[in-house]
Amino acid sequence: MRTIDFSPLYRSVVGFDRLADLLETATTEAATTGYPPYNIERTDENAYRIEIAVAGFRPEELNVEVKENLLTVTGRKAANDEARRYLHRGLAERNFERRFQLADYVVVTDANLADGLLSISLKREIPEALKPRRIEIGTRAAQLIEGEKAA
């Protein structure tokens, strides 16, 4: 795995340090474990769904948390002290933590567990003040005529 040095980026840009941090985080997380597997789906222009394979986990063993544009999904499997003799054990059922960096104004709308998949719905909710709006264009002549009528 090749590592990328982002320090020249920090020297040449001002105000983009968050973007550089995101790039650095993305490259380091790519080298981490791939457990549990997940899908990210775009369901609409401003809606997304993350599906995480969590076979064997119950809802009380999973935690979904959002803090400062970081979605963190953790799974903590309760200790299973049953004496079992497996001939083959293919289901990992191990503890995990999976993080997703969310863009600005993306919020989690709900999370559901069904058929071993944890589905997390996300939506981009842009504040009204940031949405495009049409500005009416007036004319100077109309303003002068209205001013003369008032006088």
Question: Would you give an account of this structure?
Answer:
- The protein has about 150 residues and is of the alpha+beta class.
- The protein contains three helices and seven strands, in the order ααβββββββα.
- A four-stranded antiparallel beta sheet has the order 1-2-7-6, with no helix packed on it. Strands 3-4-5 form a three-stranded antiparallel beta sheet, with no helix packed on it.
- The longest helix has 13 residues, at about 15-30.
Summarize the structure.
This protein is an alpha+beta fold. It has helices spanning about 5-10, 15-30, 140-150, and strands spanning about 40-45, 45-55, 60-65, 70-75, 95-100, 105-115, 115-125.
Low-confidence runs:
none
- Compute the number of helices: 3
Structural class by sheet pairing and helices: alpha+beta
Distance between the termini: 78 Å
Shape: elongated
Helical amount? 10-25%
Portion in beta strands: 25-35%
Q: What's the total count of β strands?
A: 7
- Radius of gyration equals 25 Å
Biggest sheet layout: 4 strands, antiparallel
Averaged pLDDT:
82
Kindly report the spatial arrangement of strands forming the biggest sheet: 1-2-7-6
Instruction: Write the element-wise H/E pattern from the N-terminal end onward.
Output: HHEEEEEEEH
